[in-house]
Amino acid sequence: MRLSTPIVITALSAALIGGCAGRSSRVNPSGTLEATETDLASVYAGRILEVRPRLGDPVRAGDTLIVLDTELLGLQRAQSEAGRRSLQAQRNVAQDALQQARRNFDLAEATLTRTRALLEQGSTTPQQMDELQTRRDVTAAQVSAAQHQLDALAAEEVKLDALLKVYDRQIRDGVIVSPANGTIILRNAEPGEFAAPGAVLLRLADLTRLELRVFLGEQDLDRVKIGQELPVFVDALKGETRSGKVTWVSDEAEFTPKNAQTRQARTQLVYAVKLSVANPDGRLHIGMPAEVKL
């Protein structure tokens, strides 16, 4: 995963080709076993405190694999949290100021209304009316200013809340966990080293089920279909047969991969086929040659 970081997922590919030039009962396309791999990296730079699994260790989804130093992030978060609490106190003061400004406005408005009635009766002067009008306008401006101040503080609080969430995410990303069950097949990190963003620290592979990619010519393509079980011969098992399930058949033809043995084979158009081969006993390994019996 690469998060907010990031974590990176890849699939090993080793394009392998067997003899599939002509259709016959002896067509046994070959390839090498592959595994789905997950490259684990840090999303930000940091010093490595712990690397828990060793090379070859099995891990389960959710296991803690690497712990980075997040002390500085924690201090920065505490500083922002203190700023947020200070801002909340300022908002309380601003809220009180707004309520007082509204009370002053209501009083000035009521006084102006009463004085206007007295002016019609000749019991006050126009000058007094002007003074009360000005006082009412001043209190109205005070209400508006207090409301703007409260709005500004609320906006600052939203920004601080967002910043705190960023720190929380970065602190969580400082602990790299396994995204799935698998086996550690590469360890590029040691405690005390500095993790660069995106640099592969560990590589995880699912070795419980490997994949075999072979290539078939058009004349042999009708021999396979998705879901079909086919016998798979692995050289290292000395004649032992495993069952391979067809999981994918390419819709597009491609030229035979360059590692085909002859120039003629490299110019042929073929279709890629993937088979899933169970590996419950762990005897199958990445890169082992294997062939499919059609």
How is this structure best described in words?
- By secondary structure, this protein is of the alpha+beta class.
- It is 35% helix and 29% strand.
- The chain folds into 2 domains: 123 residues, Efflux pump adaptor protein, beta barrel domain (Elongation Factor Tu (Ef-tu), domain 3, Beta Barrel); 103 residues, Helix Hairpins.
- β12 and β13 form a beta hairpin.
- The protein starts with 7 loop residues before the first strand and ends with a strand.
- The N terminus is likely disordered.
Q: Helix and strand layout, with pairings?
A:
Blueprint: E1 8-11, E2 30-34, E3 36-41, E4 46-51, E5 58-59, E6 64-68, H1 71-120, H2 126-173, E7 175-177, E8 182-187, E9 194-195, E10 200-205, E11 209-217, E12 229-234, E13 241-249, E14 254-255, H3 263-266, E15 269-278, E16 289-292
Antiparallel strand pairs: 1-3, 2-11, 2-16, 3-10, 4-6, 4-9, 5-8, 6-7, 8-10, 11-15, 12-13, 12-16, 13-15, 14-15
Helix pairs in contact: 1-2
